[in-house]
Design brief:
This protein is α+β, with helices and mostly antiparallel strands. The protein has 18 helices and 24 strands. A hairpin with a 3-residue loop joins strand 15 and strand 16. Helix 1 packs across helix 6, helix 5 packs across helix 6 and helix 10 crosses helix 11.
């Protein structure tokens, strides 16, 4: 082909234009058609761009294996394609296909497990797989390329489907208004007509829901009844755990009370487990504002910045009374994460039903649709986690100053690859359970209260003279932390790969992403998660203490920065009852030039389930106007930070193992500790034209996380 000079025929792009992308995705997660990858669209050798997918699909009788991670089921009959068996041109220029080598089920299983750990294996990892499986290195390489292409296509079609549904809902609402003669309202550009709002959708804009509307409403009603029972009942439905002091659901009693919700028989293609938790707490917010935040998807995301990475209202099944709240039923999508790339995210389609139960009492219930849509072909990851009736009962107290929350989280999940260090965290509810939802909501409500309070204690305010200044600083800090949370998890939007860590056993994950404003350019990011035998409160206190920063921060000036006298705090804004919940701005080695130098802006938050420390260097001249109350939305920050969570061992049954220290003659009992995640970001280039991660940037961010963890362990005598 090279000698003749003929160019190979260009394979057509699977999604050639945005308009076509949307039209191809109409089946979507709730349509009746299978995703292209699930139908067996053929994946060829080569790169991972559009040319890597052939639009023609498989020939009759051919089968390609799709990962259970993306289909929610095990291996299909047959096995995956070998990457070396691509087609080639014959003398006439037409493309024909050689016989395809199919991997054995065991080879596919090992490759899938390796893909879950690292979608972008390096040469050493590919060689190890090659030797282990008896495949050539190129076969392993092409298998991973093809597998990444399949995942990308499924993700693109899923996101396009969400966008299409939202746009369709908006257009239908406008058409309905035009029919009523309200042309001005139909084309209004006010916030109430936002694509993401609920007011743009008419009561009659339910064509794509069709005859299922009645089933949706019936399911929402049953879910509400179940949630109110789950929240209000004691024994025998809930049993108090002697080891943890928390409520544990009695499975037998639950099955007896709610037999009509026993939907396990509808899908036996995978291994399932059930997580159930209940938590009660008080949050400082009135019921009206809380309920409003739950029915508006944008506000809901803002209330849980560390947990919700993506969310959308797909359809309003029934509009509610009392400002669209009481009785509303919405079809929603959400992706929920834990702040580490090691724990898979959970993507969910569910109905949300909000109902007023009394003068100052509301119920908000979520329930997945799998009970009556088992025949629908949805994206696989969306079916890896299903919500049984979950949500909260909100009771307003103290004349509207606070609310009592009773939260139940009840989910059914398919088996997924979770590292052993995080299994106790997920099982105990620290990762996705009711405890974390209530704790995260409490932090956000406290922040909102302190941003407008006029009686903040003296220690909670320093260097900020006005209410507008306090609000501006808190807004900038919130944006900084939310930005870090978006790039720390295991969302499929984040292309993590493993990096070399000097021969150690730690798994450092790196990625490169394009940024358009934080600042603009190519950003390298590295994350490392590890367990430390230190109590979470002690570890958080050490990391949040600016006077001890020199003990771990590699960017500090060195010998001159040796004591708390080298730190000058210029701004302190309290945002919660705990002294650890605050925003600070300080400089190291303060001098007469400090007002023209660099400050460090740090946002610290702590709760029983999760603590975060987010920080970023910022010019004093840029931050000072914010302190005086100027708008902070144009201030660019590139944050780094830490996440500290309990390791979950205190929530496990009291099974204690001991070992004898012969040299000391005593018995040591394994104590609880912390799971810490370190996140470092750096600007790798001022141009965001190339997504390839530069080698020097990889080495820099990898060294930062590796050496910083070493400094932390040394300082804490781990």
């Amino acid at each position: 082909m090279g000698s003749s000079g003929r160019q190979p025929p260009r394979t057509p792009e699977i999604l050639p234009a945005p308009a076509l992308s949307l039209s191809l995705s109409l089946a979507g997660p709730f349509g009746r058609n299978e995703p292209a990858a699930a139908r067996g669209d053929e994946v060829e050798n080569g790169g991972e761009g559009h040319g890597g997918i052939r639009g023609g699909g498989l020939r009759p009788g051919e089968a390609a294996e799709i990962s259970s991670e993306n289909t929610g089921q095990g291996s299909q009959s047959g096995s995956a394609w070998s990457g070396e068996e691509a087609g080639h041109e014959d003398a006439g220029g037409s493309k024909r296909r050689k016989s395809c080598h199919r991997h054995t089920p065991e080879q596919t299983r090992v490759l899938e497990a390796a893909f879950k750990e690292s979608p972008h294996p390096d040469e050493t990892q590919r060689q190890q797989l090659s030797e282990q499986l008896g495949l050539s290195a190129s076969q392993v390489k092409f298998w991973f390329q093809n597998r990444r292409c399949q995942t990308k296509v499924i993700q693109e079609r899923h996101e396009n489907s969400l966008l299409m549904r939202l746009e369709n809902a908006k257009l239908k609402a406008e058409i309905e208004r035009l029919r009523r003669g309200n042309n001005a309202a139909a084309f209004s550009t006010s916030p109430s007509c936002s694509t993401w709002g609920i007011q743009i959708r008419s009561r009659n804009s339910l064509d794509d829901v069709g005859h299922d509307k009645t089933k949706f409403l019936e399911l929402a009603g049953r879910a509400l009844d179940e949630l109110t029972t789950m929240c209000s009942s004691g024994q025998p439905l809930w049993v108090r755990s002697v080891e943890t002091g928390r409520d544990v659901l009695s499975c037998d009693e639950y099955a007896r009370l709610f037999r009509h919700h026993d939907d396990d028989s509808g899908d036996r293609r995978g291994v399932w487990w059930v997580e159930t938790s209940r938590e009660t707490g008080v949050v400082y917010c009135n019921a009206t504002k809380l309920v409003g935040a739950f029915v508006d998807v944008n506000q809901w995301k803002e209330m849980f910045p560390s947990m919700i990475t993506k969310a959308a209202t797909l359809e309003v099944i029934r509009a509610g009374d009392n400002d669209h709240r009481d009785g509303i039923v919405q079809l929603m999508f959400a992706e929920v994460q834990t702040l580490t790339p090691l724990v898979p995210t959970r993507e969910l389609h569910f109905l949300r039903h909000c109902k007023k139960l009394g003068t100052n009492k509301w119920a908000i219930v979520d329930v997945s649709l799998d009970n009556f849509e088992r025949g629908a072909q949805t994206s696989s990851t969306l079916r890896m986690c299903l919500k049984k009736p979950s949500g909260c009962i909100v009771e307003e107290q103290s004349l509207g100053r606070c609310c009592k929350m009773t939260w139940v989280e009840h989910v059914k999940c398919r088996e997924a690859a979770v590292p052993s260090a995080y299994r106790s965290v997920t099982a105990s509810g620290l990762a996705f359970g009711a405890r974390r939802w209530v704790a995260a909501l409490g932090l956000q409500c406290e922040r909102m209260v302190f941003s407008v309070a006029t009686n903040v204690p003296t220690w909670g305010l320093n260097g900020v003279a006005t209410l507008s200044g306090r609000q501006s600083v808190l807004k900038l800090a919130q944006r900084m932390t939310s930005s870090l949370c978006r790039v720390i998890g295991a969302s499929r939007d984040l292309a993590w790969s493993k990096a070399s860590n000097h021969g150690g056993t730690r798994e450092i994950r790196v990625m490169c992403r394009k940024s358009t404003g934080e600042p603009r350019g190519l950003i390298a990011c590295a994350v490392l998660s590890e367990r430390l035998p230190v109590k979470p409160a002690a570890l958080f206190g050490f990391l949040a203490d600016e006077s001890r920063r020199h003990e771990w921060d590699l960017m500090m000036p060195g010998e001159a920065f040796t004591s708390s006298q080298s730190v000058q705090s210029y701004v302190t804004v309290r945002k919660g009852e705990d002294r650890g919940n605050r925003v600070t701005a300080y400089a190291v080695e303060p001098s007469a030039e400090e007002l023209r130098g660099k400050w460090i802006l740090q946002d610290s938050s702590t709760s029983p389930c999760e603590s975060t420390i987010t920080y970023a260097p910022i010019d004093a001249a840029v931050l000072q106007p914010v302190v005086y109350g100027d708008d902070s939305s144009a201030v660019a920050v590139l944050p780094c930070g830490f996440v500290v969570i309990p390791d979950g061992r205190e929530a496990r049954p009291a099974v204690t193992t001991s070992r004898k220290h012969k040299e000391e003659g005593r018995t040591a009992v394994e104590s609880t500790g912390s799971l810490v995640t370190l996140v470092f970001q750096a600007l790798a280039g001022s141009s965001a034209t190339d997504a390839a991660l530069p080698t020097d940037a990889v080495k820099a961010v990898t060294r930062l996380v590796f050496c910083t963890l070493g400094n932390i362990k040394k300082a804490l005598h781990c």
